[in-house]
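So, who can interpret the following?
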Amino acid sequence: MVDIELAKLDPSSVFKKPQDVLKETSLTQEQKIDILQRWSYDEREILVAEEENMLANTDQESVLHDILECLLELGIEDNKTPHSPTKQG
C-alpha cells in the first residue's frame, strides 16, 4: 500500500515514473490526480531553477510531459490544472 500523504508531498520519492501512479490500484482517481498535479508543480519548479542556472540540466521536460499525459488519461487537461502565477504555469 502506498503512503498517500508522502506521495502527495513528494511524488517522486514514492513513484519511479508518473505512469506508476496510474497503475496503483490502492489510489482513488482523485488521489491520483492530486499526486500528479503536485508532481507537475514540482517539475515546473525544477525547470524554472534550471532556466535560472540554479541546477544542472536534467530530463525534467520529459517527466513533465509524462505527467501531463497521465493527467489527460484521467480526464484532466493541462489548462485545468492549478498553477502558481509564476513561470511554472
